[in-house]
Amino acid sequence: MTNRSGNILLTGGLGYIGSHTAVVLAQAGHRVVLLDNLSNSRADVADRIGRIIGLRPVVEVADVLDTARVRHILSHYAIGVIHFAVQQRRLKQARATLRARSAERHRDLEEMLGLIESQR
Ligand SMILES: NC(=O)c1ccc[n+]([C@@H]2O[C@H](COP(=O)([O-])OP(=O)(O)OC[C@H]3O[C@@H](n4cnc5c(N)ncnc54)[C@H](O)[C@@H]3O)[C@@H](O)[C@H]2O)c1
């Protein structure tokens, strides 16, 4: 995928919302690149997306906190980014405390800011 025009990078692209968004975007004619650290997803989700849209999407297994890697991926593929990568496991635990939720949100915010920084 050398032509960056029309590419959209989905962070958390193998997750629930990311994978469904990937299908919709691909069916609308966009090329999608899925960045995910597999912390709450499996690589074979890309195979299932591929069966639906007729072409297996490019997957970059990476963490959004890895700024250098994200910068490289953006420069190589993406012209647009949709950020879905969040650490949800602790949020989904019934006994999560408000403090834990706050820390989780802080980390999510840090990840998003790192992503924005990578695009400079
Ligand atoms: N699921 C819902 O019903 C729903 C509804 C509305 C909004 N949302 C929002 O959509 C977003 C995604 O939610 P989801 O349900 O798809 O979650 P999800 O856990 O299914 O997907 C998140 C993906 O991000 C990946 N990820 C987590 N941390 C990462 C990191 N540091 N680097 C790279 N990848 C990372 C995980 O492996 C996972 O594949 C969240 O912001 C959520 O609040 C979800």
TrEMBL record:
Keywords: Carbohydrate metabolism, Galactose metabolism, Isomerase, NAD
Organism domain of life: Bacteria
GO molecular function: UDP-glucose 4-epimerase activity
Family matches, as Gene3D superfamilies: NAD(P)-binding Rossmann-like Domain
Gene Ontology BP terms: galactose metabolic process
EC primary class: isomerase
Reactions performed catalytically: UDP-alpha-D-glucose = UDP-alpha-D-galactose
Family per similarity comment: Belongs to the NAD(P)-dependent epimerase/dehydratase family.
Pathway info: Carbohydrate metabolism; galactose metabolism
Documented EC number(s): 5.1.3.2
Keyword Chloroplast found: no
Cofactor dependence: NAD(+)
Name this protein carries in UniProt: UDP-glucose 4-epimerase
Recorded GO CC terms: cytosol
SUPFAM superfamilies membership: NAD(P)-binding Rossmann-fold domains
Residues covered by the NAD-dependent epimerase/dehydratase domain: 8-87
Pfam families linked to this entry: Epimerase
Keyword Isomerase among UniProt keywords: yes
